[in-house]
């Protein structure tokens, strides 16, 4: 009954069009649909953005502005009504630059033009400035961190950490890529093997039933003891159970392959690639170990983390120095 129920439960999924896959197609699909690999790729993109932001803190900052204003005011004094009209135009340019040496530079230039007109309507007196007033100014300042900021490696620690995170994410992506390929290959050949086991289980069940038929005929003829009938019946039940287990394992292997390549479980799958004949291969054990240690991306990521930790320790020791800043400035104003 259990086997019948299992076949009935899988019938809607089997009704869908089978998915035909070769071994190479599975490996290509794994690199596109594997969720762990996609997450590793997003982590690398995030690390790229963090590194760009860290480098951006050392970009120069430019400032600029333009202003134009006019005003009219009216009042009363000892000479009667007073009217005042004024206009002002201004612009400014400036910038700030941080240097890895711990130096901060600021430069600002301001320019202002002002003109005015006064009148006393009751007295008929009117005064207008013949030439406008110009007020330029220049300001330059410099700030230098003498103790903590004198070490460029400390000042660039954010850039170094972002680069370390980027390189680590890149190594992790390579790890996930290799793991995804391994998972795809394992899932493909596991399903291939399980289908062979199902075929073997079917053949074993057929053989057990044939033996049961022969034994039942022999028992009926009286040439074999009736106890043999119970033995062969138990063998048939065992073969049926083995077939159910093989079918279940085959379906699990099929779903595992579908999930590995990013497909929905339950779809029928046809495999088109058969195992190739193994070829003799001579491997130098020492060279293989050296290559594995040198090219293993997981070890590379750990080495990067170890180097980053040592740099963090040096930066922390340097940060124990007191803060001391030297400031200098220059200003020039005109009228």
Distance N to C terminus: 104 Å
**Radius of gyration, in angstroms, nearest whole number:** 42 Å
Q: Average the pLDDT over all residues and give the rounded result.
A: 85
Which descriptor suits the 3D outline? Answer: elongated
Order of helices and strands: HEHHEEEEEEHHHEHHE
The biggest sheet, with number of strands, parallel, antiparallel or mixed sense and barrel status, is: 7 strands, antiparallel
Q: How much of the polypeptide forms β-strand, as a percent range? A: 25-35%
Flag low-confidence runs: 1-14
Structural class determined from secondary elements:
alpha+beta
Give the number of DSSP strands.
Answer: 9
Helix segment tally: 8
Helical amount: 40-55%
Characterize the structure shown.
- This protein has 335 residues and is of the alpha+beta class.
- The chain has eight helices and nine strands.
- The strands form two sheets. Strands 2, 3, 4, 5, 6, 7 and 9 form a seven-stranded antiparallel β-sheet that branches. A two-stranded parallel ribbon has the order 1-8.
- Helix 2 packs across helix 5, helix 5 runs antiparallel to helix 6 and helix 5 runs antiparallel to helix 8.
- The N and C termini lie far apart (104 Å).
What would the keywords be for this entry?
disordered N terminus; elongated; 335 residues; two-stranded parallel sheet; 54% helix; 7-stranded antiparallel beta sheet; alpha+beta
């Amino acid at each position: 009954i259990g086997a019948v129920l299992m076949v009935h439960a899988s019938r809607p999924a089997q009704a869908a069009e089978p998915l035909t896959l070769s071994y190479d197609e599975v490996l290509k699909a794994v690199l596109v649909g594997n969720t762990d690999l996609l997450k590793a790729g997003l982590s690398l993109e995030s690390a790229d953005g963090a590194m760009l932001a860290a480098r951006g803190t050392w970009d120069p900052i430019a400032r600029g502005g333009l202003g134009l204003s006019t005003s009219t005011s009216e009042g009363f004094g000892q000479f009667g009504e007073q009217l005042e009209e004024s206009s002002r135009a201004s612009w400014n340019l400036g910038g700030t630059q941080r240097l890895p040496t711990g130096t901060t530079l600021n430069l600002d230039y301001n320019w202002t033009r002002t003109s005015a007109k006064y009148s006393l309507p009751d007295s008929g007196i009117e005064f207008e400035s013949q030439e406008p007033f110009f007020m330029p100014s220049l300001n330059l300042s410099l700030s230098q961190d003498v103790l903590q900021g004198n070490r460029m490696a400390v000042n660039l620690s954010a850039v170094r950490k972002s680069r370390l995170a980027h390189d680590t994410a890149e190594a992790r992506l390579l790890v996930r890529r290799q793991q995804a390929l391994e998972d795809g290959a394992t899932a493909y050949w596991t399903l291939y093997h399980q289908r062979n086991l199902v075929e073997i289980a079917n053949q074993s069940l057929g053989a057990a039933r044939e033996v049961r038929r022969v034994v039942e005929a022999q028992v009926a003829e009286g040439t074999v003891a009736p106890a043999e009938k119970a033995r062969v019946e138990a063998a048939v039940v065992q073969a049926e159970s083995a077939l159910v287990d093989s079918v279940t394992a085959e379906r699990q292997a099929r779903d595992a392959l579908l999930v590995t390549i990013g497909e929905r479980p339950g779809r029928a799958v046809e495999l088109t690639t058969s195992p190739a004949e193994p070829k003799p291969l001579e491997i130098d054990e020492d060279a293989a170990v050296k290559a594995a240690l040198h090219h293993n991306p997981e070890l590379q990521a750990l080495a990067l983390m170890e180097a980053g930790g040592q740099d963090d320790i040096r930066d922390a020791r340097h940060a124990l120095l007191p803060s001391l800043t030297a400031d200098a400035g220059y200003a020039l104003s005109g009228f």
